[in-house]
Structure formats: structure tokens, C-alpha cells
Amino acid sequence: MLLKYFYDEALAHASYLVGCQRTGEAFIIDPARAITPYLKAAAAEKMKITGCVETHIHADYLSGSCELAKQTEATLYLSDEGPADWKYQLGSEYSVQRLKGGDHIAIGNIQLTTTHTPGHTPESISLILTDLGSGANEPMGIFTGDFIFVGSVGRPDLLEEAAGIAGSADQGARDLFRSIEKFNSLPDYLQIWPSHGAGSACGKGLGAIPSSTVGYEKRFNQALQFTNEEDFVRFILDDQPEAPPYFGLMKKLNKLGPKIIGDFRPKKLTPQQLDSLDPACNVIDTAAFEQFASQHVPGTINLPMKYLASQGGWLINYQAPTYLISTGEKVLEAVRILHEIGIDNIEGYLDADEVYASGLASEKSQQQSPQWLAEALSTNSIRLVDVRRKSEWNAGRIAGAEHIFLGRLAEEFGQTTSQEDNRSIVLQCRTGSRSAIATSVLRSLGVKNVINLSGGIEQWETAGYPIVKESPSLKSAPPQEPVSISCALN
To answer: Are 39 and 52 in contact (CB under 8 A)?
Structure first.
């Protein structure tokens, strides 16, 4: 048996190649839209990709299963669980095999047994792997998709938060509780291979370790310690990260089948063409924060590569054309990341060095220190806006700050701003990175008196200034001693 792990840092997304070396066949589990790594890995191992398996209809990225099927004629193995409204509806051009809990699919000597694990989504399935070629008659591990993560579980509120299905969060939480009860009956020795790691918005508190075991998670995963359903529902729905608005779009596109993009190459524009672009378009500069602050084109938004996926889905208008200001290989990587989150209308790019040399990068951004902020707050001469997530704000904040989450800043800033208030706006996050992005967002909207707090609230505390903290609330039940009993596969 061959098992290869692929990880996309930009999306905190894990996918897998499972192959049988005897027959030269391979399946891809939860593939990303950029399929070149799978094709290269299969070719290197002299294997043919014959199947793509999806654990559920993804919300945070566009699946690569259709892309792979077009190139390799692979069969798509898709869940047939859940309500009719959330079943896959791919076109007849694809070879599809639908799976229910307890079904078996095979790659040579490798058997995958599906188990229905609703909660994160109604149709969610997990895949239990047994390597029959090694002489084993018991399973080795389980591909849990977005059901069980290292240190966490998949959030059950996305259908309500992102797709607008009222009441689905509570029902999803209850389904998840029962799926966890079934998971807890699996043998401790099984390995766990999840589809996301730390940084994903598909759950809260995900660990950065790529894999785990059932026994370890039963002992230390907080979400697996509950014996009371009501306590679990309160816990799992509390403090979930904000759901980006594009999640709803991803669910629909993945259900119907994403557009095939193939080998896309954006066209290059000259700096002089900037003036002729539609004012409503997205112009994204991928420069580092310091570079952007020192010089940038008016009206552009700063999204360094590290933040392109996590913030792009919030800040980029999906209905408008998108242009990139970037350099070298970063251009193609930026295009890849944007394609992963469904931004396909990328009309071109401009070389950053050429833009800077042209003189069009005529604006600068301002930042100030915690010492400067403390003095400004004492004289009420500035307006401090904290752009962190709500859970971060609740955990501790600077006195006198107001909260507007970065993802909703463009929408909500004008609603909370008086025309008579001519104070400078100071933006603040944890380290100064997200607030630097926020600074570019407001400046792109024509708000010029914007200042970024250098080092964020971390530097504020390091400098000895106080923060305001809320009283902690009880969010979990006492851990229960885990018990390992017989394996339940269906």
C-alpha cells in the first residue's frame, strides 16, 4: 500500500493519495482544485488515478475531483447520504458512484468502508481503510474529512451561517453528537487522517499535527468528552470562527461541479493600463506589509500571499474582475490560491517592480507605536477600531476600542461612522498584520486618515499597557474517562 499526504498551507487543507502498488491504481481523497501535485505523484509512483473520493460537499474550497476526472477519467465516489437538497448534482459527463454508510470500494488490495458521520454536513462520510494485501483483517485508519480533526471536530453551523438554512446549526450539532458517539466505539489504534489543520475556518481550535489516533482523540479532544447532548450543543456552537460569505457559494459550486479551469495563465498588463480599469474591479497587491506601506497604488488592497485565501474570500468582490500586482512565481501561486476559493474572473496581472518604477505607487500608509496610541487615547484624539475575531475581542481588548471584524469592515465602517467625526482611525489586531490589511481596505474606500497599530495588542501588552478581559464562562463538561469498545463500521 502507498499513502501520500498533501497539504496546502494557504487553505490549511489536507488531501491524500491511496494506492495499491500491486495493481498500480490510486484514489485521491478530497483533492484540491490544483491537481498537478497528484498527477506528478501518481506518475512518479507509476500509478493511474482511477478514483476520487469526496467526504462531503466542501464549503471552504473548490474540489479538484471534476478537474481530475476530466484528465484521468477517474470515477467520482460521492456521498448519497443526507437530504435531497444537499446531494451532489454533477453532470452526466462524469462517472459517479454514490456511497451510503457501510458501502465498500476497493483499489486492488485496499478496501475503503464508508461510514455516515453527519454533523458538519448532513451528507458527511468517513472512510475506514483496511490493507488486505498485508494480511490484515482489521482496519488501519480512517479518513475523517471535516468530521474529526486533531484536537477538534467539524463545526455544524456552516449551512446556517453560510448557506442561510435556518435551524440547521442546532440539528447539525445534535447529529454531530451522535456521530461522535459512534466514533468513540472505534478501536483506539486506528490512525486518523483529517482534511484540515490549524487555521481552517471549518472548526475551532484545530491542531497543527497532521494526523492522530482514535485513542488519543478520545482521551484529549475536548469535543469528545461530552456525555450530555445539551452540554455538547452549547459547547460546539459557542465561539465558532466567523464564516466567510463565499462558503455558501462553494457549497453550491461543489454540489453542481466546479468549472474546469485547466492550465490557466493570466495575461500581463502594463502599468499604464491601470488607469483604464473599471473602478469597481478588485486590484490586489500581494506585497509584504512593509513594502505596501512604503508605496502602493491608490485604491488597491494589500493581501500578502499568506493571507490571500483566509482574507480574500471576505474582501474580494466575487462579481467584479480581479487583477493582481505581484512578481515572478508569486503570480501563478496567487492565481492558484484564488482559484481554490472560487475567484475565477482573474483578468490579468501587473508586475510589481514595473508598477513601482512607473511612479503610480504614489501612496503610503502610516503606522504608530503603542506608546503613541496610549497618549492619543488619553486625549480622545483618535478612534480605535479592533478588527480581530469576536472570540479574540471577548478574550481581551484595549479599553476605549470598538469592534468591527475585518471581514465586515468595508460593509460596517460607514454604518458606524459619523460625518462630523474627523478623528484619525487607528486599526488594531493581534500582531498588526490583519490591521495592516484593514488599513488598505479603508484607504481603498477613500478613508485617508487611517493608522495601523504596529505590533497590535501583543506589542501593547509587551509595552506594559493594560487590556480589559471578560469573566470566563463554563464552555465544557469535565473530561470523561474514555472507554474503548468494539469497532462500529456503519
So the answer is: no
Domains 268-358 and 366-462 share a fold: yes
Burial of 128 (0-12, 13-18, 19+ CB in 10 A): buried
- pLDDT for 162 equals 66
> For the chain, which residues make up each domain, given as ranges?
2-256, 268-358, 366-462
The set of residues, in sequence order, having a beta carbon less than 8 Å from that of 216 and lying 6+ positions away, is none
Cα 470 to Cα 104, 139, 242, 395, 473, distances in angstroms: 50, 46, 20, 6, 9
Residues 354-376: tens digit of each pLDDT: 999 999 999 999 999 999 999 99
0.85 cut: is pTM over it? yes
* 268-358: CATH topology: Oxidized Rhodanese; domain 1 (3.40.250)
Do residues 162 and 201 lie in contact, with contact meaning Cβ atoms separated by under 8 Å? no
CATH superfamily of 366-462: Rhodanese-like domain (3.40.250.10)
The CATH-assigned architecture of domain 2-256 is: 4-Layer Sandwich (3.60)
Q: Which residue has the cell 470566563?
A: 472
Asked whether the beta carbons of 15 and 340 are under 8 A apart, the reply is: no
Distances (CA, A) of 180 to 139, 154, 227, 435: 18, 11, 10, 38
